[in-house]
Write a structure and sequence with these properties.
Chain lengths: 306, 306
């Protein structure tokens, strides 16, 4: 990670838990950081930490050498680029637009083509690691783009990421690798939820299930992380059910367009949809376990807890 | 792990990759080990390492303080206990039958009741860890049974296991926890296979996919272990497709009997069935990835390999 004062300005569009953490890492690395979010309170939280407030994507982007977009999806990315007061027309020639939202490869290619046609660079750069690692400048980035895009984004990547996978020389590749991860992550949350409810319905001790599985061949990163939320009976959204409705939806769209059967992912998506339909769309994605438990008429309590 | 010479005799019924490894660990711990297998070559392999050959389960069991059964399923366990020349009637009063096969909890309870009615002990003791850890005496055992059963099996558990989870005081509980693990393990193999073929169909570099996923939130123990077989194009059965046809079949039977919906596991089972139907029942369980690749019309090769 770099440190000290830098001459360059970086715009951060979208100051949710991930964008805010990345903006802090950039401030700490010495960049002048211009932040924009539709939520004014998010912008004020950044200015209190040394960032500069911007009233629109265009205002944030106009002096920036790099524009980091950390919005939710392809539609919001298009909006901050090409909507009213968008960053697209305001960016300096030769500046780089680094897009971190999870989206379909075709969407990333489309946005990149429009940005590059205007003489700016585009880095397809989906991220993973969660809010805490964002704040620590320790994200994983799956990046693809031209050599110029990588060069223009180099110091920014250095400030926000512990690990950058350089997966190719064109936009869309970063997105494609990210969707493979999202397929697995979504299936693993659904499977973990199904297994915990199946165990609870048999009267097994869920803390014992957790202790066994996390040391066995049935373990997954998602089981270990998300089933702790279930044991704690804490469904505060670290990542919401609606995120996997979106991401497994993208997987299903890609699969259908390519005539690629993905029955396991499609079934997992149905479980996220049922959970959202049951009123838990905004709750933590481990809420899929609550949906299963409700269906099975069982409770997800560890023994020895009230 | 204990060492030195012990006075007691242990019978091992079933000398496949797991049973043979456990028998070796018992020989090393100083037990007199009487081995039985329908395959004479497996018995001879054990006698070359210091074990004693037995011509039937009864012959192996008659002097033994503990009988370790490492056959494939409930039907084979019933057969070595109560079939012709079975161990059940031959065992000494007070000896323990330690059953390691993966089976439904109801099957374990039924066998335990018959063994205990005859004045012997039964330890429901499914194992995990694979052939190498069996040979090292480093398995994980999910054990349930009476205090007497645990006491009678204590030194044997010490010799074969690195970790014993004592999950309850009655047969069936060990089996139940094991089935939760098998649900997850089976789903994760199917999901890993689906994700790798989905990636291959998009032209992604599968070695890069492996490197990214194993450091990301989409990782699972099974992805990391089995997808290495896919990258190596090596489908020599370490664990065969047919094992998960059986184990996810048990999960589905249990779920149906209890009116418990398990749609993700049921979908994964269909993928193992398709792989078996395509002629790969005896191949490594990572062959599910080959089935997906065939369906998708793609190849599972890492770039830079022929």
């Amino acid at each position: 990670m770099s440190s000290g004062t830098k001459s360059s300005v970086v715009a951060v569009l979208g100051l949710g838990s991930m964008g805010y953490g990345m903006a802090l890492s950039l401030v700490r690395a010495g960049f002048t950081v211009a932040g924009y979010d539709v939520n004014r309170a998010a912008v004020e939280r950044l200015t209190a930490e040394g960032g500069r407030a911007a009233g629109s994507p265009a205002a944030a982007a106009k002096d920036a050498d790099a524009v980091v977009s950390v919005v939710v999806n392809a539609a919001q990315t298009e909006s901050v680029l090409f909507g009213e007061n968008g960053a697209g027309a305001a960016m300096k020639p030769g500046a780089v637009f680094m897009s971190c939202a999870t989206m379909a490869p075709a969407a990333a290619r489309g946005l990149a083509a429009r940005v590059e046609a205007d003489g700016r660079h585009y880095l397809d750069a989906p991220i993973s690691g969660g809010a805490q690692r964002a704040a620590e400048g320790a994200l994983t980035v799956l990046a693809s783009g031209s050599a110029d895009a990588f060069e223009a984004a180099d110091e920014v990547l250095d400030a926000v990421a512990a690990k950058v996978f350089r997966v190719g020389d064109a936009a869309g590749l970063g997105a494609a690798y990210k969707m493979v991860n999202q397929l697995l992550a979504g299936v693993h949350i659904a499977a973990a939820s199904e297994a915990m409810a199946f165990a609870a319905a048999q009267g097994l001790d869920l803390q014992m299930v957790y202790d066994i599985i996390t040391k066995s061949a049935g373990n997954s990163w998602m089981f270990e992380n998300r089933m702790q939320h279930v044991l704690d009976d804490d469904y505060t959204p670290r990542s919401a059910v609606s995120i996997f409705v979106k991401d497994l939806g993208i997987v299903e769209d890609m699969a259908r367009a390519g005539h690629l059967p993905v029955p396991v992912a499609a079934t997992a998506l149905q479980m996220f949809l049922m959970t959202a339909a049951a009123g838990m769309a905004g709750d933590d994605d481990s809420s899929v376990a609550r949906l299963y438990a409700d269906l099975m008429g069982t409770e997800l309590k560890a023994k020895g807890r009230s």
